[in-house]
């Protein structure tokens, strides 16, 4: 059984879309980001790509609980850019997503309703250009085992759709597994049935 707390929706590929209104160009980038470091890297890349743009407005929502978010109007009137961008991310129920909308001013003022519509439309177009991906919420565990048990362990990994995050294969092996949250108790039980395997919660 999978419930809504065991899955989340995100994107895996960056997409770009453009919206124009009365001479102004709004170029939107929808990017997958897992943490603040990735957000900063992507924003800096886009700023370097568009050094002459008038504004670099953005919104992101990070973390599986979706409780880390930020909006920036970057000099546009308050509430006309970042909030409408975040609204598009939220309308699709996405997390770990950054949308940056770069504006080149076209000489005509759009007014508050025009700006809200432009930033919302650009963000919406970019998110339509990339597939939405359903992922399982995972919990990490460290497993220590003897090298001779690798085949049994990998069979379990495949059977329960786990993911190998890190591995250190010596005579005694260390592996960090990301286990789907709804299969954790089953996988732990199976691992404990195997001899000489130690399992402990991984460091997130």
Task: Describe the fold and architecture.
There is one protein chain. The chain is an alpha+beta fold. The chain folds into two domains: 4-134, Ribosomal Protein S5, domain 2; 137-201, Histidine kinase CheA-like, P2 response regulator-binding domain (Alpha-Beta Plaits, 2-Layer Sandwich), CATH 3.30.70. It has five helices and eleven strands. It has helices spanning 36-49, 82-91, 111-128, 150-159, 184-193, and strands at 7-11, 15-21, 24-32, 55-62, 68-72, 97-104, 132-136, 138-146, 163-168, 172-180, 198-201. Strands 2-3-6-4-5 form a five-stranded antiparallel β-sheet, sandwiched between helices. Strands 9-10-8-11 form a four-stranded antiparallel β-sheet, with helices on one face. A hairpin with a 5-residue loop joins strand 4 (55-62) and strand 5. Helix 2 (82-91) packs parallel to helix 3 (111-128). It is elongated. The two termini are 25 Å apart.
SSE topology sketch:
Layout: E1 7-11, E2 15-21, E3 24-32, H1 36-49, E4 55-62, E5 68-72, H2 82-91, E6 97-104, H3 111-128, E7 132-136, E8 138-146, H4 150-159, E9 163-168, E10 172-180, H5 184-193, E11 198-201
Antiparallel strand pairs: 1-7, 2-3, 3-6, 4-5, 4-6, 8-10, 8-11, 9-10
Helix content: 25-40%
CATH class of the largest domain: Alpha Beta
Strand content: 35-45%
The end-to-end span amounts to: 25 Å
Total tally of structural domains: 2
Specify the CATH architecture of the largest domain: 2-Layer Sandwich
Strand order of the largest sheet: 2-3-6-4-5
Radius of gyration: 22 Å
Largest sheet, if any? Answer: 5 strands, antiparallel
The counted number of beta strands is 11
**Helix and strand pattern:** EEEHEEHEHEEHEEHE
Can you say what the CATH homologous superfamily of the largest domain is? Impact, N-terminal domain
CATH fold title of the largest domain: Ribosomal Protein S5, domain 2
